[in-house]
Amino acid sequence: MSYKNFKVETDADGIALVTWDIPGRSMNVLDETSTNELEAIVKATTADAAVKGVVITSAKEAFCAGADLSMLEGMNQAYAKVFKEQGETAANQMLFDQSRRFSQVLRSIETSGKPWAAAINGLALGGGFEITLCCHYRVAAENPKTRLGLPEVKVGLFPGAGGTQRVPRLVPPQDAMTILLKGDPVTVEKAKALNLIHAIVPAADLIKAAKDWINGGGKAVAPWDEKGFKLPGGPVFSKAGMMMFPAGNAIYRRETYDNYPAARAIMSCVYEGLQLPIDAALRVESRYFTSVLRSKEAAAMIRSLFLSMQELNKGARRPKDVPATKVKKIAVIGAGFMGASVGYVSARAGLDVVLIDRDQESADKGKAHAQKVIEDQIKKGRAKPADAEALLARITQTADYAALKDVDLVIEAVFEDRKVKADTFAKAQQYLKPDVIFASNTSTLPITSLAESFKDQGKFIGIHFFSPVEKMMLVEIILGKNTGDVALATALDYVRQIGKTPIVVNDSRGFFANRCVGRYVAEGNEMFLEGVPPAMIENCAKMAGMPVGPLSLSDEVALDLGLKIMRATEADLGPNAINPEQKKLMVELVEKQGRLGRKNSKGFYDYPEKGKGQKSLWPGLSALQPKQLDPDTLDIEELKQRFLVVQAVEAARTVEDHVITDPREADVGSILGFGFAPFTGGTLSYIDFMGTKKFVELCHKLEAKYGSRFTPPKLLEEMAAKGETFYGRFAPKKAAA
C-alpha cells in the first residue's frame, strides 16, 4: 500500500523502514493525514507475519516539529458546531474521541507485539517526540543542534498523546515535572542521561543501529507493560513521592499563580496517572486534554503564540511586490550597550557588521561586548571557540564613517536625543550608497519627525529592538509617513535573517510596545502614590500574569531614563501629557536620593553585589508615600485587573490611532515585547475573550474610581454596542505563501 506522507520498505530481514516525508514541507508536522496513515501502517505491519520489526525515521533534517495546531483549532470549531446542533454531552464526547485518537494510535504501536525502534535524525518535539516515546527503542543521531522535548505548555496545552504518562515512567519525578512544566527541549546527551533515549550514534549509522537492535532480539514490550514494573521515583504515596508532590504543587503555584489550566492539568495527570495502570492513565490524560483544549487560555495562546507568530515570521506584513532582499553587511552607529548587542545578534546570524562610534576606544568597547557574550555562551556549552572566532571576525569596529560606503543597511543606535540623532544622520549621509536603507533604533521619538533630517525619507524606517537584544525575540518596525515599501521589505527581511519576530506599526510617540508598557509602569507608580504597599504592588502584578512587577521593571529600564522620557514628553506635548505627582516622585528618587535603578544598584530596590544574595525593596520607600493603606482593606482582584486593563485600553487606543492595523501584532508584540500575561493571548485577545461589552463595563467602573486613564476609546464603545471583536472587525490578512 502506498501513503502520501510515509514511505514503507521492508528489507530481507523482515524489518520495515517507515520514512516520514510530508511532500512540499520543509519539516514534518503531525496532521490528520499523518495520523491516519500511521494508524494504517501500524495495522498493516502488525498483521503481516513477514514483518519482524519496524524502524520509524524521517527524510527531513528534523524528525518532527510537533502537531499542526491549526488542526486543534478545527477541532474546537467542530465542537462548537456539535454543541449547537446536538448539545454539550454530544460535543464533549466528540472532542474526547477526536483528541484521544492519536494517543490510541501510539498505544497500538506499543502493544503491537512487534518491536518498534525510533531512529531520531534531528529535532523531535511535541507529538513528534511522543511518537518516539511509544517506541520500544530510541536511538538518536549525533547532532549538536538536535533538541528533544515537549513544549506544548508554552502554547497553553500539554502533551496529550501519552507524554504526561511515559515521561514520569522513564525519568525521576522531579526531572519529569521540569520537562513537562517548563517545556524546554533538551540535547540528545541530556536525553540519554535522563533515560529518554537509549543510544546516540553517528548519523551515518542511525538506521543500522535501529535495525541491529531489532535483529539482536529487541523486546516488543514497554517497561510499564512488564510484570513488576517500578516507577523511577517510587509510588506516589511513598516517602519520596510525598516529598515531591506537595513541594511541586507549591512551586507550580509560585511560578504560575494558577493562571495556566494546562500546567495545572499536567500536575493532576502525573499525580493521578502514576497511581493507575497505563491504559487507565492514558484515559485520564485524554480527559484532561479535552478539558484544557476547550479553555479560553488554550485558544488564546494557540492563536497568538503559535498561529499568529508563525504568520508574522513568514512575512504576513511584507509588501508582496518587492523582491526578496538578503542583507549581507550592516553598519550600527552607536556601539553602546544597545548598538553592540544589535551588532552581536547580526554577526551571530552570519552578517558582516561595522560598529561605528565617536572614537576608536568606544567602538572597541562595543566589540568587546560581543566577545564577552560569546565567551559566556562557550562557558555554558552553547557555543564553541571556533564559533567565537568566526563571529568576531565578522565585526569591524571603527570611528570612521567612511566605513559605511558598502553596507546594505544602517541602524542608528545613538543616544535618545533629537539633536544627537540629527548630527549622526548628517555625518552618515555623505558616505551612503544610493539604495541603502537607514533605520533608527529609537524607543520613543516619532520616526516621521526624525526622518526630516534625512534626505530620502522613503528609505528611512524605525527598527526598535528590546533590551536585552540577545534574549528578546520582538522587533518593532516603525513606518514613518514617507517610508517606502522597499525600506519595509528590507527591514522585515533583515529581522527574519537574525531570527527575531517583527511587528509593523505606524508612527506615534512610544509606538505600540512602549505606549502600553509605559501605562503598566505608571499604574505601579499610581498605586505607590495611593499608599499601596510596594511588595503588594509587585506581587499583584505577578499574580496578574506579568513577568516582573512595575517597580522592578522601572529599575531595569533605569529611573533616570524614565524621568528623561517624562521631561521630553512634557516639552513636546505640554504639562497635561504627564502626571506631575509621578514626575515629582521620579525627581525625588533620581535627583535627590541618587537612585537610578539597577545600573547603580539602587532604585525602588536595593541590589546586592554580584553573587551576594537577592535584591530587596528599599526600606526608605514608605517615607516617599504620601500615605500608607492597610493591605487587608485592598481588593487584590481589582489591583490585578488594573494592571491588565490599563495596558489593554492603551492597546485599543493604538488601534483607534491606526498605530496597530493588525490585531496579531498587538497580541504577539505585547507578549514578546513586555510580557503581557501570556495566558490571555495578548492585549487585544484579553478584550476579545472577556467580551468587548464586559470589558467596557469594567473600564467604566475603574474610570469612575481611578480616572481617565481607564476611559475606553470611542472605537471600543462602538464595538461593544455592536458586539464586535478585534479579530472580527479587523480580520488579519493571511501570510504570503
TrEMBL record:
Pathway: Lipid metabolism; fatty acid beta-oxidation. GO terms for molecular function: enoyl-CoA hydratase activity; long-chain (3S)-3-hydroxyacyl-CoA dehydrogenase (NAD+) activity; NAD+ binding. Signal peptide: none annotated. It holds the Pfam family ECH_1. Keywords: Fatty acid metabolism, Lipid degradation, Lipid metabolism, Lyase, Multifunctional enzyme, NAD, Oxidoreductase. Residues 510-607 form the 3-hydroxyacyl-CoA dehydrogenase C-terminal domain. Residues 329-507 form the 3-hydroxyacyl-CoA dehydrogenase NAD binding domain. It catalyses: a (3S)-3-hydroxyacyl-CoA + NAD(+) = a 3-oxoacyl-CoA + NADH + H(+). SUPFAM superfamilies: 6-phosphogluconate dehydrogenase C-terminal domain-like, ClpP/crotonase, NAD(P)-binding Rossmann-fold domains. GO terms for biological process: fatty acid beta-oxidation. PANTHER family: TRIFUNCTIONAL ENZYME SUBUNIT ALPHA, TRIFUNCTIONAL ENZYME SUBUNIT ALPHA, MITOCHONDRIAL. In the central section; belongs to the 3-hydroxyacyl-CoA dehydrogenase family. This is 3-hydroxyacyl-CoA dehydrogenase.
